[in-house]
Amino acid sequence: MAEGGPVKPDKTEFTECWRTSWKTPYIMRLALSAGIGGLLFGYDTGVISGALLYMREDFESIDKNTWLQETIVSMAVAGAIVGAALGGFLSDSLGRKKSILGADIVFFVGAIVMAAAPNPWVIVIGRLLVGLGVGMASMTAPLYISEASPARIRGALVSTNGLLITGGQFMAYVINLAFTKAPGTWRWMLGVAGLPALIQFVLMMSLPESPRWLYSRDKVDEAKSTLEKIYSPEEVEEEMALLKASIESEKADEAAIGETMLTKLKNAFKNPVVRRGLYAGVTVQVAQQFVGINTVMYYSPTIVQFAGFASKSVALSLSLITAGLNAFGSIVSMLFVDRYGRKRLMIISMAGIIFFLIFLSVVFIEASSHAPKVGSIESVLFGANSTCSAYAGATSSAAAGKWSCMTCLKAKCGFCSNKASEVIRNFRSRIIFNICATRLILVFHQV
């Protein structure tokens, strides 16, 4: 735990943050340099959704096997699970700074591996490496910001990490859209991810270690030297005293609950306050993940395509709105979380997410059940008004066997070729509701 009490950012703290950062730019340099870890997290979440559209063009195995698509997407999450656990261990043993530098190296290597991948399984390895880097950064970066920032503006600075996560998602969609016409498309999309990791590595090399970690390792002079760059001279001694008291209290708590991990967990669960806090925290995180919001983020362009917009650039453009509202939602939460309370906003946002995800599912189920099939039997049955005249013309060639949903959508007959049909009119109405629901899901998720 950092010194100075609990982190509770409010509007006055954000004002104070701006004022303090203006007087001492070094503080913002620390926060933004470490916050690039959040940017990497957000970029990795958003970039794969667009890159996947173009991978399916280059690799037939990816296009034909949904399980391979799912493996590519989910492998980063698997790596992040391991990376988060590893990041906690490394940040305690080697220091916050070295842990962030290590995360940058792993992330950079993963980005290069993905960009140069000759086959889908190398992409999977690259995604695993990127996930490891993301997990390490997501664990260590907020910790570094918290420990290297003044107590009076600590909450506001830590909140910027969340804003950079959503900002990274928005940036990923912008870069995806920028490379839609470039040779190599998805390779550039994934490879560019290494650039912010490289920038953070260079910036962090010139920054000090967390003063709290230094003090806990009996490097008192180094800790004081760092604090002198953050605080005014009259505040340094006071902060050193708080640091000493906090470290001693932490060591006393560790001695009371035991040395081994099993003993610590056992004694922690005996404490009713710790137990209730753990239950609440874990339940909120699990609930947030299980509502399926990550499906919308990872597959947003694909969802838009299946809604009837076959063009990749159009799908990415519409997904850009999703990412923009995602970032907007994080700003809304930062502005109102202290005015209306964490619990109230969390309940409202979770209810909104559940409602609109159910609505999104119903829209697709209804569209699927009412849309006529595209196939040789249907094409013969309807004759001139066939469900897909382009498919009917291809039935005599070997290409007909390679048709998929995307092929039909590109031929502008994925759901019904008759523009006067009631089915197509109703479906287009559903598309509008579908996209609106997706946007609202992201706003509620960030609030």
Automatic annotation (TrEMBL):
Keywords: Membrane, Transmembrane, Transmembrane helix, Transport. It is found in: Membrane. This is Major facilitator superfamily (MFS) profile domain-containing protein. Residues 30-447 form the Major facilitator superfamily (MFS) profile domain. InterPro entries: MFS_dom, MFS_sugar_transport-like, MFS_trans_sf, Myo-inositol_Transporter, Sugar/inositol_transpt, Sugar_transporter_CS. GO terms for molecular function: myo-inositol:proton symporter activity. Belongs to the major facilitator superfamily. Sugar transporter (TC 2.A.1.1) family. It comes from Linum tenue. The keyword Transcription regulation does not apply. GO terms for cellular component: membrane. NCBIfam families: SP (TIGR00879). PANTHER family: INOSITOL TRANSPORTER 4 (PTHR48020:SF24), PROTON MYO-INOSITOL COTRANSPORTER (PTHR48020). The keyword Oxidoreductase does not apply. The chain crosses the membrane at residues 30-55, 67-89, 101-118, 124-145, 157-179, 185-207, 278-299, 314-337, 344-365. It is a multi-pass membrane protein.
